[in-house]
Structure formats: structure tokens, C-alpha cells
Amino acid sequence: MIPGPTPVPPEVLQALATPMINHRGPEYQALQHEVTENCKKVYQTENDVMIFPSAGTGGLECAVVNVLSPGDKILAISIGVFGDRFATIAEAFGADVDKLSFEWGKAADPAVVAEKLAANKYKAVLVTHNETSTGVTNDMPALAKVFKQYPDMLVLVDSISGLIALPLPTDELGFDVVVAGAQKAFMLPPGLAFLTVSKKAWEAHKTAKMPRFYWDFTKMAKSMEKDQTPFTPALPQLFGLRVSLRMILDEGIENVYARHRKLGSAVRASAKAMGLELFADPAHASNAVTSIRIPAGVSVKDFRNLLLTEYNVVAAGGQQKLKDEIFRIGHLGYCGEADIIAGVSAVERALNKLGFKIPGGTAVKAAQEVLETK
Ligand SMILES: *Cc1c(COP(=O)(O)O)cnc(C)c1O
To answer: How close is the Cα of 33 to the center of ligand 1, in Å?
Structure first.
């Protein structure tokens, strides 16, 4: 139950074992065409969608180097580890980065962002949709409203752990590049990064001077005209993607969001019933991953070890300064009610063993009450 890599459905695992095909042959073109079109549906976009063999972070780098030049003044909004990383990538390529950080556990305040934008002229803004390290989801519609007052400014979004799990209508919100990754809500093993490219991003790309070779929108787009890629595509991943996208679209994207909302609120209700403190601001708690403070007197390390060895549940720890403070339960992608019941039960039993006493059945009862609601 870590927030990525997430579990992979058996149908997808089977597809991953498909024998290789000629990536320059007709079977391949049909494959690329289908997955690209279906990606547009989950992104709710008419913009180009590109798929690169890569970790999610490669997708973030790809976004930066294709639309920016060294010296460009940009605003990086950070609410945790991944917001910091996006800023660091832009710095590494010579952007003049103004970082606007918010307290970990909180979402970005649109009013503070608006002030910052009013006082400076930025070429682009970088923002995280769902901050996996803290379990906080930014209010993207509210931020989009602020960004729209600056029609020349590019908006680059890290939605690696958000897309598909949480609503993010790319075109409606006017986002120029939205990055996603395979191993979160796409229900795939790690190894693919996804990016949308708006018309405005294409315009910026024409004059963007950051160095790039592999990560090149132009090369990719030219190949995509023939449903091809400039370099060898990650065939097993694409076989898996074809199946996972069909599963997501069969369920219906709105139903997928609703499932995540329900699972998220079940985990939060359960944690509260156990007397645990939620780390994220309740107004912006993520429905993809829940961060929970470890009770006083219990070590995160011992707790996670016990979860694994006694209950066969893998939870994530905190990252960086939150290492000894929180643990995180992922509930995104191929995750259902049974996983939540098993997960919260294991949390309760492990904490009891470690001396944090919770009346038996508390966690499951609270989760079940939420799961029973419409
Ligand atoms: C997982 C994640 C990343 C990094 O993905 P990698 O595949 O590890 O590079 C970046 N941003 C967010 C929000 C994530 O959840």
C-alpha cells in the first residue's frame, strides 16, 4: 500500500509478457495510436500527448527543457519533496527560479500565489497537483483561475500521482504541460512518463534554448505523425498500458475518481477513529495517499517492519524531514475496498502490538461505515 509503484492488475501483468513485435511495423502503429488516443481521454485534453520511456522525473525534466531557456524567470510553487524536485530540475538547466514554498501538510494558498504573480513577471509557473510526500492535493481549479490572469505565462504541472486518481481536466484548467507517470494511478509498473503539450507550449518550444536531445518535443511529434517514436519504445509497457487504459475507460473516469474519493475518506475516517492524527490539512487531504502521524512512543521503522512481517502490508514512511514523523498509505490505482479493509486492520493490529492501544475492530468499523455510504 505504498503510493507507487502501485499494484498491477493480473490482466495487465499478462499483457506485459506479450512477445515482442517489430516496433516499425503496422501492429505497432495501431498500438501507439490506441494508447495515445485513450491517454487524451484520461487527460481530458485535445492537446498532444507524448509517451516517453522514463521515470516520472524524466517527464518533469522533459517539460522544463522543451519550453524554457536558461535565464527565464519562473515561479516554482512547492508544498513538499516533489515540488522541490521540480524547482531543482529547472535550476539545474539554468532557469532563474523563484521558489514559493508552503508549510508541509498544507496546500498552496491561491491568494499568496496571486500576490507573487502580481509583483513579478514570470515566463512559467511550476506546480504539483498531488504532493505524494505529504498527502496533500492542491486546489487546481482555484490556482488555474489565478494563472489565467496571465495568459502569456506557461503552466507546467506535476500530476504524476494525481492523474486518473483525482480530477484534472487539462484543457478546462488551461494547463500547458501536464506530466504523469506509469507507476501511480495508471496501474502499470514504473517506466513511462506522459506529457501533454498545449498550443502555447508549442509556441514556447520554438524559441526554447535549454539543451536537450532525447527529450525533444519536435523529434517526438515528427515520429508521432506516423504513429511512431524517434527511439525504441518500451513495448511491454505499452502492451500493459493498452490494457490498463481500457480498464480505466470501461470503469469510467468519473467512477474512478469516485472510487478514489471513497477509499480516501474511508482511510481518513479509520485513522481518526483509531485516535491517529492526520498530517495533511483536512481541507486538502489527498484521495490518492494518506499521511498519518505516528503516535508518540512508536517508531515508524518498527511499525512498518511489523506491518510487513506480521500482516504482509507494505506502508510507506515519511520522506526527508518527515522520516520519523509520519507513515503513508497509498490508495490509488488498482486498489479496492478489500485492500482498504485489510490495510487499516493491519495498522490497528500492529499499533496495538507496539503498545498504542486501540479497541479491537475500531479501524475496520470506521472504514466500513464510509464504504457503505453511497
Ligand atoms: C512519484 C512521483 C514523482 C517521481 O516519479 P519517479 O518515477 O520516481 O521519477 C514525482 N512527482 C510526484 C508528485 C510523484 O508522486
So the answer is: 26
Is 348 buried (19+), middle (13-18) or exposed (0-12) by CB count in 10 A?
Answer: buried
Q: Which amino acid is at 121?
A: K
Instruction: Judge contact between 366 and 272, C-beta under 8 A.
Output: yes
- Which residue among 60, 160, 166 is best mutated to probe the pocket of ligand 1, counting the most ligand atoms within 8 A of its Cβ? 160
Residue numbers in the chain where pLDDT is lower than 50: none
Question: How does pLDDT run across 168-183, given as a tens digit for each residue?
Answer: 999 999 999 999 999 9
The C-alpha atoms of residue 263 and residue 342 are separated, in whole angstroms, by 12
Query: Which atom from ligand 1 is nearest to the alpha carbon of 182?
Result: 7
This prediction's pTM: 0.98
- Would you put residue 196 in left (φ > 0), alpha (ψ -120 to 50) or beta? beta
Name which residue sits closest to atom 12 of ligand 1, judged by CA.
Answer: 160
Residue-wise pLDDT for 26-68, tens only, equals 899 999 999 999 999 999 999 999 999 999 999 999 999 999 9
Transcribe 87-112 into DSSP letters: HHHHHHTT-EEEEEE--TTS---HHH
Rounded CA-CA distance 67/123 in Å is: 10
Q: Whose CA is nearest to atom 15 of ligand 1?
A: 161
